[in-house]
Here is the input.
Amino acid sequence: MVIDQAVEVLAPLKGSYALDDCQFLLKEVNCEYSSIEEKEMLIQSGKRHYSELLSQEAKPTDEYQKLFFDFTESYKVKLAKHIYALAKHINESKKGPIVIASLARAGTPIGVLVKKALVHFFARECTHYSISIIRDRGIDAVALDYIVKTKRHDPTSLLFLDGWTAKGVITEELRRSIIRYNASRDTDISPKLYVVSDTGGVADYCATREDYPIPSSMLNSTVSGLISRSIWKAPQKTFFMDV
Here is the structure.
C-alpha cells in the first residue's frame, strides 16, 4: 500500500474553515522551503519528486486580492449554478448520509460549497473531509481508514470531489488507488470523481466542460483552509501538510 497502516492518525485539522465545513485529515509538520528556481531544477533533473519540495507562499497583494474579487463578481452566478448542479446530481444518486472527500487542496473550497448546497437545498446529512492524493504516490489510505474504520462511515456513502480536471493524471491516480484500497480492505468505495469543470473530459461527473476561471483557483492556501499542498516524506510513507 501507499501508506503505512501503522502511522497514527491524529484528530482532524481545522484549518481556517469551521470543522462543520471541512475536516482536514492531514498532519501538521514544519518543513524546509525551496525557492521556485531550485525546486524546478531538482524536479526537471529527476533528482527529487515534486511532492518532496515546497515553496513558501506569499500573502496575496492588494492588487491580487482585487483581481480575485473581480473574478468572483464576474463568475459567482455561473459557479453557483454549477455547485447546485453537482449537489443536485449527488442528491439524486446517493442515498443516506453523504461523505465528501475533497482532494486537497483545490477540491477543498468546492467541497465546502457542495456540502452547504446539499444541506441547504436538499436537507441531506453530509460530512466533508479533505484528504491528500499525490501523483505517482497515491491517495492517503490512512485518511480513508479514519473515515471508514474510525468514524465508521459506510464506504458506499463516500464520494471524491475536486475543482476541475486537466490531463487526467490525478483522476487515474485516484482510480488506481481506490482499486488497491478496496482490494486490501475488502471495501466497495467508488473511485468516481466529481468536479465542477471537466475540461480534460476525464471525470465521471461534472457540472460543465467549459474552461472558465473558478475564483478559488487563484488563491492557493488562502482559500484552501490555510493549508499547503501535500508533502511526501519518506521513509515514513505518509502525507504531511505544512500549515
Notes: The first strand starts at residue 23 and ends at 24.
